[in-house]
Amino acid sequence: MASVGPPVASTQPSPPSGITVLGTMPYAFMLPEIFCGTWVWILVAATSVSFQLEQGWVMYVSLSSCLISLLLLLGYILGFHKNTENWKVLDSMYHGITAILYMSAAVLQANVAIRSEFDVNSPLYYHLNCAASFFAFITTFLYILHSFRIYYH
């Protein structure tokens, strides 16, 4: 009679280290997240910031998310994810929370764009606010995709 050994634990493979991490899903979303988030920050900063409370929140969310995503990307490139078991949980929770924060920022920025449509100061600010709203919603979508992809991976 053959003895049955202990069951083999099935673990998911960890993402590769180095620059090759950018070629795997969902980590390929990280550069577009950083790029679009940077554009949100730049476009809001280029306006006159007529609505300080709303646009202040948008700038806070976009800048802090961009910096934390950059640190997370550096962690993946340098291989820090191989030292801990909970790296995927951290990644999924970060991107999920950031998606919620970005959704609130995108809605506020869209509200600012609507309210600045008939502003007599400059139609340029209206176009900048619309572009910032567009990039905020794109960034929100990217964070949602990343969060669900890492969770269901």
Please give the structural blueprint.
Blueprint: H1 30-46, H2 52-78, H3 87-115, H4 123-151
Helix pairs in contact: 1-2, 1-4, 2-3, 3-4
Would you give an account of this structure?
The protein has one domain (30-151). With 153 residues, it is mainly α. It is elongated. The model has no long low-confidence stretch (mean pLDDT 81). The protein has helices at 30-46, 52-78, 87-115, 123-151.
What are the salient characteristics of this protein?
single chain, about 150 residues, mainly alpha, about 0% strand, elongated
| Helix proportion | 55-70%
Radius of gyration: 20 Å
Structural class: mainly alpha
How many domains, as an integer?
A: 1
Number of E strands = 0
Mean pLDDT: 81
Question: What is the percentage of strand-forming residues?
Answer: under 5%
Distance between the termini: 38 Å
Order of helices and strands: HHHH
Low-pLDDT ranges: none
CA-based shape: elongated
* Largest beta-sheet details: none
Tally of helical segments: 4
Give a concise summary:
This protein is mainly α.
